[in-house]
Specification:
By secondary structure, this protein is of the alpha/beta class. The chain has a single domain, classed as Rossmann fold. Helices cover 30% and strands 33% of the residues. It contains six helices and ten strands; from the N terminus they run αββααβαββββαβαββ. The protein binds guanosine-5',3'-tetraphosphate (G4P) and sodium ion (NA) (2 copies). The site of guanosine-5',3'-tetraphosphate has 23 residues, from β2, β7 and α5.
C-alpha cells in the first residue's frame, strides 16, 4: 500500500535493526483518515470472502480492526490481555509468549462473540514474531469458526511471524512488508510479489 509505505518512510523512526516506531500516525497518535484507508484496503483484499467478524487484540490493533469492520460492514471484536474474573468459564483463551517483553500472558475472548457460524478476518498492527497472532488463530479454532486470513498493517519480513502462521495453514496479507531496515534506511518487499 503505497500511501502507507510513504508515510513510514517520512515519519517512521527506526530505533534499531528490529524496532520501528510509528507513534506519530499509527500506534499512539492515530491518523484517522489513514486508518480508514487501511480498513478499506483490508476490505478490498478480503471482499467476497464471506467475512462475518474482524478479530484483533488490544490495544493497538483496535483502530485497524474497526476500520476493516466498517469497510466490510461487520462487527469487530478484540481479545483482552487481562482476564476478567467474572468471565472465567465463558471465554476462549490462549497463552502468548512475548519475545520482546520476555513474558507470557493470557488472551481471552468471550464465547458470546465468536462461534462456529463465523468466518473471521484477523487484523493487527505489527507482524513481528507472530506470537500474538498465533494466539488469535488458536482462539478462532477453539471457537470452531472459519479463518479467512490474517491482515497486518506492517510486517517485519525478517522476523519469523509469517512463516509461523503459514506453517499453521494461515493466509497472511500485509499492507507494508519491510524486508530490512537499519537506522536511516528501510526497504520494502514488492507487495505484488507472491
Ligand atoms: P507479535 O509479532 O505477535 O506482535 O509479538 P511480539 O512479541 O513480537 O511483539 C510484542 C509487541 O510489540 C506487540 O504489541 C507488537 O505489536 C509490538 N511490536 C513488535 N515489533 C514492533 C515494532 O517494530 N514497532 C512497534 N511499534 N511495535 C512492535 P503488543 O504487546 O500486542 O502491545 P500493544 O501495543 O498492541 O498494546
Ligand atoms: Na499489536
Ligand atoms: Na503494539
Amino acid at each position: 500500500m503505497k500511501e502507507l509505505e510513504d508515510r513510514i518512510r517520512q515519519e517512521g523512526v527506526i530505533l534499531s535493526d528490529t524496532v520501528l516506531k510509528v507513534d506519530s500516525f499509527l500506534n499512539h497518535q492515530v491518523d484517522t483518515e489513514l486508518a480508514l484507508s487501511i480498513g478499506r484496503e483490508f476490505g478490498r483484499l478480503f471482499a467476497d470472502r464471506g467475512i462475518t467478524k474482524v478479530l484483533t487484540i488490544e490495544a493497538s490493533g483496535i483502530q485497524f480492526a474497526m476500520a476493516a469492520g466498517i469497510a466490510l460492514k461487520v462487527p469487530f471484536v478484540y481479545a483482552k490481555k487481562k482476564k476478567a474474573v467474572t468471565l472465567a468459564e465463558q471465554v476462549y483463551s490462549a497463552s502468548v509468549h512475548s519475545f520482546t517483553r520476555q513474558e507470557t500472558y493470557q488472551v481471552s475472548l468471550s464465547r458470546n462473540y465468536l462461534g462456529p457460524n463465523d468466518r473471521v478476518l484477523i487484523v493487527d498492527d505489527f507482524l513481528a514474531t507472530g506470537a500474538a497472532l498465533v494466539g488469535l488463530v488458536q482462539i478462532v479454532r477453539e471457537a470452531g469458526a472459519e479463518l479467512a486470513g490474517v491482515g497486518c498493517v506492517i510486517e517485519k519480513g525478517f522476523q519469523e511471524g509469517r512463516r509461523l502462521l503459514e506453517d499453521m495453514g494461515v493466509h497472511v496479507h500485509s499492507l507494508a512488508r519491510i524486508s530490512s531496515m537499519a537506522p536511516g534506511e528501510i526497504h520494502f518487499v514488492d507487495n505484488d510479489a507472491p
